[in-house]
Amino acid sequence: MSTVTPNTIRSDWLAEFEAAAARPLAQRWKYAFIKTYKPVMDDAAYRSWDTMEEYRQWCEENLPDWLGYGRV
Hints:
Elements: H1 11-22, H2 25-30, H3 52-62
C-alpha cells in the first residue's frame, strides 16, 4: 500500500484541491451536486409500489440499462 504525500500528488490536482478548500462552505455546497436528467425516472413527481418485486419489475420494463437499475 502506497502512502500519498504532497510530493506524490500532481501539482495541478493539489492546487485545485487547495482552491476548493479555501472557498466558503455555501459555495462548495452549491457546486457539490450536479443534477443529471434521468429518462423515465424524472418524468413523474413520484411513484410508489406495494412490493419491492413490483418496483424491480417496473425498473426492468421501463428504465434504460445504462441507468444501472437492472438486476445483476
